[in-house]
């Protein structure tokens, strides 16, 4: 417990080496917890761990160490996993992998297969357009994560930045991308092709 406290105090003080050690100790354990809840091959497991650490880091200064810190981190992680499971029925549009999932659901629920490819291309074209509005650093980290499929550690090595910076920068880039997608003028025409063939279509809903 004393070693944990000393490590956390160094992280709070801004020690980069301590932060890397903190991630090295707790990130694999959180990944196991996330995989246990969501499934071993769930694509969102790593994102949940990232979000857990982003939530926890600013709150470390208030931790009272009455219990091992991993118990607290795991509680945050599992709550986020549960929230993800509850949101699974909602439409999520962020990056290419989310758009693929979205189109598969649309194919089952509303559109014929020939419409699917058209709508998919429209959304991917829109995504490519709005990505050009991001700053270069945000575009690069989105490319490394969601085009090349790198994990957070590999991105950190490629960009020569700490793991914590990778997580916060990627979170900001995704938030910017969602905002741009929602504000895009062409968004209102996304369902035009499907609406012409599908009876009583429900309104499109895009949630970040």
Can you tell me about this structure?
With 208 residues, the chain is mostly helical. It folds into two domains: 2-87, RNA polymerase sigma factor, region 2, helix turn helix motif (Rna Polymerase Sigma Factor, Chain: A), CATH 1.10.1740.10; 96-197, Arc Repressor Mutant, subunit A (Orthogonal Bundle). The protein has helices at residues 2-12, 16-38, 45-56, 69-87, 96-109, 113-131, 136-147, 152-159, 163-183, 192-197. Helix 3 packs across helix 4 (69-87) and helix 7 (136-147) packs across helix 9 (163-183). It is globular, with a radius of gyration of 20 Å. Mean pLDDT is 75; it is low at 186-208.
Annotation field: number of helices: 10
Radius of gyration: 20 Å
**Class inferred from helices and paired strands:** mainly alpha
CATH top level assignment of the largest domain: Mainly Alpha
Shape: globular
Low-confidence stretches: 186-208
Number of domains: 2
**CATH 4th-level superfamily of the largest domain:** Winged helix-like DNA-binding domain superfamily/Winged helix DNA-binding domain
Number of strands: 0
Q: Strand-and-helix sequence, N→C?
A: HHHHHHHHHH
What proportion of the residues form beta strands (DSSP E)?
under 5%
């Amino acid at each position: 417990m004393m070693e944990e406290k000393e490590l956390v105090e160094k992280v709070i003080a801004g020690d980069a080496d301590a932060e890397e050690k903190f991630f090295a100790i707790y990130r694999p354990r959180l990944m196991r917890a996330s995989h246990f809840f969501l499934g071993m091959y769930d694509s969102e497991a790593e994102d949940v761990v990232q979000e857990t650490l982003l939530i926890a880091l600013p709150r470390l200064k208030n931790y009272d160490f009455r219990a091992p810190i991993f118990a607290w981190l795991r509680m945050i992680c599992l709550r986020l996993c549960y929230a993800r499971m509850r949101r699974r029925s909602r439409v999520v549009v962020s990056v290419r992998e989310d758009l693929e999932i979205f189109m598969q659901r649309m194919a089952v629920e509303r559109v014929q297969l020939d419409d699917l490819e058209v709508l998919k291309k429209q959304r991917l074209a829109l995504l490519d357009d709005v990505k050009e509005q991001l700053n270069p650093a945000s575009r690069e980290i989105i490319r490394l994560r969601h085009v090349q499929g790198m994990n957070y550690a590999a991105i950190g090595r490629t960009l020569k930045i700490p793991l914590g910076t990778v997580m916060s920068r990627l979170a900001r880039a995704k938030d910017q991308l969602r905002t741009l997608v929602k504000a895009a003028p062409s968004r209102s025409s996304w369902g035009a092709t499907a609406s012409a063939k599908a009876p009583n279509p429900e309104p499109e809903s895009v949630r970040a």
